[in-house]
Amino acid sequence: MENVLLYILGVAVVVVGLALSIGLHEIGHLVPAKLFGVKVTQYMIGFGPTLWSKRKGETEYGVKAIPMGGYISMIGMFPPAKDGAVARSNSTGFFQQLVQEGEPEKKPGALGTLVEDARQASADTIGEGEDHRAFYKLPVFKRVIIMLGGPFMNLLIAVVMFTVLLTGFGSTQATTTVGSVSACVLPATSDRQTCADGDEAAPGAAAGLEPGDRLVSIDGTTITTWEQSTAIIRESAGTPLQVIVDRDGAEENLVITPKLTERYVTDDAGETVMNADGTPQTVDVGFVGIGPAGELVPQPITAVLPAIGENIAGVVHMILNLPERLIDVANAAFGPGERDPNGPISVVGVGRVAGEIASIDTIPLASKTASLLGLLGSLNIALFVFNLVPLMPLDGGHVAGALWEGIRRWFAKLFKRPDPGPIDTAKLMPLTFAVVIVLGGMSLLLIYADIVKPVNLFG
Q: How many structural domains are present in the chain?
């Protein structure tokens, strides 16, 4: 029962943390918008039916039923198509379309209707005498500041969380204490990673090593780091080693003979080295079958920004390889394969991981807290990077449109041409619609995979 409550607590921490992150993200848009005089009609956390709302001044603040994001509504997001355009109702009586005065009426196609509906919906938000408060009327730099305000808040949250995590708790580093002992020997390229009847016992388990044993010396060499013990074991395949361990304050003498087995080659960053044909590179080395226990070691403040940079680089790499990663997720969800623990997961998966962290008895409270802080910090890094993707309706799409408008106007001024006016971002609505469909499909796939084939981080 206690584990169930801890699991629920872990999920609740992520839900509340995500809600606060979304709320602060939208405040990052709201504050500069109001400072620059844009009329903001809504500030909402979530989508779908409104659960609660309260109007303060000209803005309605509220919470909606589906906690999958948030938004603020600013008037005049899209500029008119061109001077002299007037609005009229189309045959459905629900949408509007623009036609040039004096031109014969043309019935737009589906994409054209989508564009014109967006323009008209934007125009309808502008009340009488409010043209000067429309978003599209702002200078380019002010629009960029408003749209970058949200991702900046996520970055700021991540910096705060990683600062508390690294300087207050520390990063997990390997100790000379044995944290895990493999029951059997399996090569790195084995189709399975769990032991079965008939598998050869791992040398560590066969010699009597136990989790919690602290390595004192190997063949007379005092062990001060885990890397030191690994180097000796890898070079000693087939050679009996005299190993002294500290077990509950008493020294135990063991004899362990590392077995020659196949392991993946890794670089300094811990990544698997690949062959020219794309297959993982392997090497035959001595193997005992033990893993280190970790401990939290506080880091200096100078470690925060490099950690943020590594997280950003990891998310960028994930996004650049997203199609391939999603194919892997689909193959695992609908087939016999296992999920990649370093692959993409949904908010359901994040909640599940948080619940597992909180409910595992063998993890100290400090380590649980640190792990949850790191999880929320990484989640905010993901929100920061993902929102900068230059596609509407993401913040990066609005930034890209504003910057392109600024470039066009700069060139027009440079070559003494007429001002080309604002970019007609409403024309991007078909692409925006497609992006929304793709993101929705991706979310459904990840949620389904996180339910039927969740990422297993703890074996």
A: 3
Catalytic residues: 26
**Which burial class, exposed, middle or buried, applies to 44 when counting CB atoms under 10 A from its CB (0-12, 13-18, 19+)?**
buried
Among residues 297, 321, 354, the one where a domain terminates is 297
The reported pTM is: 0.80
- Contact (Cβ atoms closer than 8 angstroms) between residue 363 and residue 357: yes
Other C-beta atoms closer than 10 Å to the C-beta of 267 total: 8
Determine the structural domain holding residue 396 and report its residue range.
147-170+300-459
156 and 266, same domain (yes or no) = no
Contacts of residue 354, Cβ cutoff 8 Å, sequence gap at least 6:
10, 11, 13, 14, 372, 375
User: For residue 329, is it left (φ>0), alpha (ψ between -120 and 50) or beta?
Assistant: alpha
The 10s digit of each residue's pLDDT in 119-130 is 888 899 999 999
Query: 237 and 278: one domain?
Result: yes
300: closest CA among 164, 162, 167?
167
Structural element, H or E, at residue 205: helix 203-207
